[in-house]
Amino acid sequence: MMQQLRNPKNVKLVSLFVAAIFVLGCFALSLTQSGFGKSASAAPSESAIGVVNYQMLVAQCPDIRDVDAAMKTEIENAQKEFEEKSKTMNDVEKRRYYTQTQERLQNKQKELMDPVLKKIEAAIKKVADKKGLSVVVEKSTVVFGGSDITDEVAKALQTAK
């Protein structure tokens, strides 16, 4: 065998054979990495990213009416309370009390909105899982692509009430 490899003609044949295998391997690797040969249905429509219009979902959520009504009542009560208690206060005390009242109202709004937002997020997760989406982002942050699931989430919220 060693004597056959000393023959320059055989060395060239073996070298060509090794080079051909290397080139074919590189070609096959590039085809698999480029996605060539995947079915046409696995194109962009099967994106693993979903998008939603979160503001629209919040505005259309049936529970938001209850939150708005509760907040309106809370604001009216806070205004009456502020007017009564601030009559005897100086300007510095009024500002301090006004700031405390604003913080109390913000905390109340957060307390009322948290269950609504959790309900929306649960509906988004449910639709995303059903469609096989691994990521869902706010629609306004996406320039191109993604599957819009806003309508499906809105329907899920309406039926969940």
Task: Describe, in plain words, how this protein is organized in 3D.
The protein is mostly helical. The protein folds into 2 domains: 37 residues; 123 residues, Skp domain (Protein Binding, DinI Protein, Chain A, 2-Layer Sandwich), CATH 3.30.910. Helices cover 70% and strands 6% of the residues. The protein has a 3-stranded parallel β-sheet. Helix 4 packs antiparallel against helix 5 and helix 5 packs across helix 6. About 6% of the residues have low confidence.
Question: N-to-C SSE series?
Answer: HHEHHHEEH
**What characterizes the major β-sheet?**
3 strands, parallel
CATH superfamily of the largest domain: Skp domain
Q: What strand order characterises the main sheet?
A: 2-1-3
Number of helices, where a helix is a run of at least 4 consecutive DSSP H or I residues = 6
Task: Enter the CATH topology name of the largest domain.
Answer: Protein Binding, DinI Protein, Chain A
The tally of domains stands at 2
Beta-strand residue percentage? 5-15%
Task: Identify the notable features of this structure and list them briefly.
161 residues, mainly alpha, 2 domains, 3 strands, 70% helix, elongated
How does the SSE layout of this entry go?
Blueprint: H1 2-6, H2 8-34, E1 49-52, H3 54-60, H4 64-85, H5 91-131, E2 135-138, E3 147-148, H6 150-160
Parallel strand pairs: 1-2, 1-3
